[in-house]
Amino acid sequence: MAKFSYVHSEMFARMKDVKERINTNLTSLEYLETLDMFLWKAIGSIRTAIPSLVDEFMVKAIAQQTFKSSTKFSSIMKEEKGKLPVFLFNALTERNIESLEGFRNLRLNRGMLFGLVQIFMDRTTPYMELINVEPLSVHDWKERAFQLREMERSLGVVDGVALYNVIEDVNIWYERARDWKSAIIEKYTRKALGQAKVAYEDYNYAMDLADVIQIHMVLLSRAINRCDSRLGVLTTFITSWFKSARSEMTRVITASQEVSYEEMLEGMGDAAEAEGIEDRTLATNEAVQHISMLAKEIDPSGVLRIHLGIPEFMPLEKRKILLAHAIN
Length: 328
Fold this sequence. Notes:
Layout: H1 10-16, H2 28-49, H3 51-67, H4 84-92, H5 101-104, H6 110-131, H7 138-155, H8 163-202, H9 209-226, H10 234-242, H11 245-268, H12 273-298, H13 303-308, H14 316-324
Helix pairs in contact: 2-3, 2-6, 2-8, 3-4, 6-7, 6-8, 8-9, 9-10, 11-12
């Protein structure tokens, strides 16, 4: 089996020195409700101007989750999942177009809400670009006014709404939401780095540390997007998401080894076969090691694992202790 050693990462060194903008420790509810407030302020402005955009987005999201069981956009309680279409109907038929209570009850994750706001920003970018062009003549002024009206019509803007002001308002709340989420990520960056370093060592340095950190930071972002403060503490939720980093690492390591094996065959022909066997063995061993770790979490006593013949892999730290006390 190929052997690897620790390689220093500049990314790890820089991220360790990250400065936290939130100096106090807030509760999960305070972190997440502040983020939700910024997002829903932005979405409220969007629905005031283009209600069809918000309504269609919500319908597609709930339809996807209703008809595809593997999809989970909402954190709604299990006993209420069958009522999602009813909740959606109530939200769509609210008389007050500015009211978002019905949509909030759908409990869509924050990744979806960020996506909705980004769709609005992308669709209105040509509108803002046209506004910022200075016309050269009276004819240009009239032509631009006509084009702006056509854009508003195609976007589905409600009559009498000043779209420019809405876009500016949405942009303010969107930037605040992104900035606040970045501040939450800063609070948990050191935790992500610690988890990444442990995983890096447990996998015997088979993957670049910068890539391991990136996987953990992506999972950190997803955990913040999906955490429902009614169902648990943010820190616990993030920790549980970090556990899935190992399966992603196994997938990446295996994929990289398969690519290198193909390149060896192409460049060395039959002479690569002997070395290729080692690569395939490493990929298989990594997969078995990952299964072993998951099995140990489910069956810590080892009764079922022994019966099923699942091996147990010892972390690098414990192996070092044993080697230090081993009798030659």
